[in-house]
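User: My instructor asked us to take a sequence, write out its structure as tokens, and then describe one feature of it. I'm not sure where to start. Here is the sequence I was given:
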Amino acid sequence: MADFANYPEKSESRKKDKLPLIPLRGIVIFPYMVVPLIIGRNNSVRAVMHAFENNLPLFLSTQKTKEIENPSDKDIFEVGCISTILEVINMPNGMVRVLVEGLKRGNVLRYMTEDDFLVVEVEELKSTVQDNNELEALERSLKDKIVEYISLNSKIPKETAASISAIEDPEKLIDAIMANIPAQVADKQAILEENNINERLTKTLALAHKEIDVLRIEDDINKRVQDRMEKMQKKYFLNEQLKEIRKELDDGETLDDGVKELKERAKNKEMPEAVKEKFKSEIDRLSKVPNMSPEYTVLYNYIEWLADLPWNIYTSDNRDLKLAEEILEKEHYGLKEAKERIIDFIAVRQLNPKSKGPILCFVGPPGTGKTSLSKSIAHALNRNFVRVSLGGVRDEAEIRGHRRTYVGALPGKIVQMMKKANSMNPVFLMDEIDKMSTDFRGDPSSALLEVLDPEQNNTFNDHYLSLDFDLSYTFFITTANNLYNIPGPLRDRMEVIEIPGYTELEKKVIAKNFLIPRQVQENGLSDVKVSFTDEAVLDIVRYYTKEAGVRNLERNIGKVIRKTAREKLKKDIRSININSKKLSKYLGIRKFDFTKGQKEPRSGIIAGLAWTENGGDVLYIESSIFKGKGELILTGQLGDVMKESARIAFSYAKSVADVYGIDPKKFKENDLHIHVPEGAIPKDGPSAGVTMISSIISTFSGKKAKNDYAMTGEITLKGDILPIGGLREKLLASKRGGIYSLILPRKNEKDVLEIAEQITKDLNIYYVERIEEVLDRILIN
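Assistant: Let's start with the prediction itself. The structure tokens for your sequence are:
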């Protein structure tokens, strides 16, 4: 044992040397360590060569941050190791490999620069002892721990434990241990910098404890992984042995439980011949593939899809026309055209049972019952019903599926929904077909061309299945809010049925017969007699909703009934009657007011009729003139088509100025501003042309326009009036707005005849062919 009393208690005067400095990255050198270093930085290479040529030691100190390429004195620890060079080897890339041995600890006193490399003035560090007895105890504990550490670490030769245990000098003991423990740079640097030998031993002992704990955790993890691997290998070998046993028992045929299950599921399916052959060949492949192979899962999933699809499974259609009519009438009010088309289909199926399924497209505003009508059709036909939403779909693979070469491949939505339907003739709803989009992954609307073509869909080929699938007996229904967003070729394959907005009277009937009973049931008021007066329902329609459908109407009715449910719990109410006076209590102040007609005739303000996705609306077009240069100003967030209509109207007004007593100079000396109120709402379309001309002529002539007329129609540069669309919704908007005198294009007269009488009742409709007829009727001389 060393004589600890010889250690000085205080620092003595020490020799100061000027040595080349090598900053190290990610490594701390201790005395007596022999370490090979690769030196790449130019100034460090020069420092090594200078020391080697002049037989000088090096001072090796670690960088505080290893990412710094050219460290300054502030980036390097002041305590390092004075080391001697044992060997230098020049490498072809300009680097040098140097073998160094640590001699003693040193502390930097001063930094200097010499020949483009760092030189430092260094003094040797001496250790001090605090307590000799404690020192001996720490030394013994440390030797025990390092022996335990080496026994756990298979990377260190076992002989190292004996050589370390034989070291008598505590400083050399610490240096030897630090050469064998892979600790963090900060931990090693702290031990290197410590002068008190007791503290250095304590820190080294703590580090040994930590590394032993880490080794035990690593060993535990390795054992768990090894056990898992052994179990998997054991399972694999047992499966192989089981296959061989089954092979002997089954006369050469080896089938695992998965293969047997798939065969059992497919046994009673009437698969087409091509599908049978494919199924058999894939089953044979699967039986030869090991269970642990990735290919097994891919094959199994594919065969499972073949086994689960409803090959040649058909449900029996309801052929009772009267029963079908009753179901449709019971579940939906109105929608005459759509209901008649379903009854026609049932009649045709009785005469020709092999007739193919139709492809219908319901087009109409939101909330008009397109989706729920599709469910009623399935109910009336006694068919299974499936629905897929196409809103936002932009990948062709969503329709056709992915090929099996892709990881996680699946069939497309069509085949997935047919599996869910469990029959070959379901009612298949494709919701929001106008909301699809395209990108680099393909065009899903093009993929639907085959699905929705009666001449092709009997051999629909999904990329995943790679087999023909018969969709010809499927009753396809698609829904859309706007027909113009559907590509032409796809639109051409569908029979379009318009689902128009409801009138106020229709909404009242729907609310009374369908919405109120449903909300009463959903809100737990079955034992309370809840009734709404007709006036209350109409007030909700007029003043709390602005829609063509009944979705918001049902929300508001639900809100009223929920408030009623709260009152029932407080007062135990058995019946309640909701009238108009109570609505403000339940629904708050009125949100809309459609009776917004002008109170008196004014110049330049004309009521126009517009179509929106939410139904029809009354839009007032205003115009005003002021001193300027004859420019046309348009505001109100108008679309390109509407802007063109304004320019046409302005040009036509100039051409007929003399007829209406307008000085042509007015057009040159004044600017014209046309505005369509509710500027936050985008507006477009050509049907406002008639209204714009009437407003411009009224403004320039100074003549007032009648306030009890509304109009719509497209115009030409020669003053002809062309027909427009959305007529039913526009007539409803006019009545809702309290305007009963309408001016419509003559060519729309036939369309008005097809509109229900309850809509046209009380309306005074004037048909016109030329703009002069319009101006003669509305301008007040």
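For the description part of your assignment, you could build on this observation: Residues 1-13 have pLDDT under 50 and may be disordered. Try explaining in your own words what that tells you about the chain.
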